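retry 2 of 3: previous attempt timed out while embedding protoporphyrin IX containing FE. Reduced batch size to 1 and resubmitted. Inputs unchanged:
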Amino acid sequence: MAKTYTFEEVGNHNHKEDCWIIIHGKVYDVTSFLYDHPGGGDVFLVAADEKDASVGFDEVGHSESAIEMLETYYVGELDTDTITSTTVSDGENHALPPHAPAATKTNHSFAVKILVALLMLALPFVVQYYYGKGNDPPNGEN
Ligand code: HEM
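retry 2 succeeded.
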């Protein structure tokens, strides 16, 4: 059975002679891969410091073979009850950063819709005004 590590335990392996990272609730010992990783070793050290590498790993859009390589470095599961950081992945496909509330964008688009509706309502009057004007014979030429 896979060993379970506490969040603190994983955090202790945060240097280049001993570097563990967390990706989607799983713990990986990437010490031996530090100098061979095509993306450089620094990203692992940063990830080890930040405690969770899920978002970084996903954002790169790693290849299938990179995803398969994860198995090589797998050492166990993270005890999710011990997580003390808000930026740690919950083991699903997303991390748990405090999300900003939805922007007030909707208010803006609502105002635009109202404006468009008013313009459409006014359009027949505008057309009639110009059409009527254009049909009027010029003064004194009749
Ligand atoms: C055990 C975990 C990881 C493995 C096995 C791994 C493996 C790989 C492999 C095989 C590549 C070559 C490109 C590809 O096949 O996708 C790569 C590239 C890269 N990786 Fe990772 N990676 C890991 C974790 C991470 C993390 C945590 C980050 C960032 C937070 C990262 C950032 C990058 C970057 C920036 C590249 C270079 C992409 C490019 O130059 O196009 N990797 N990785």
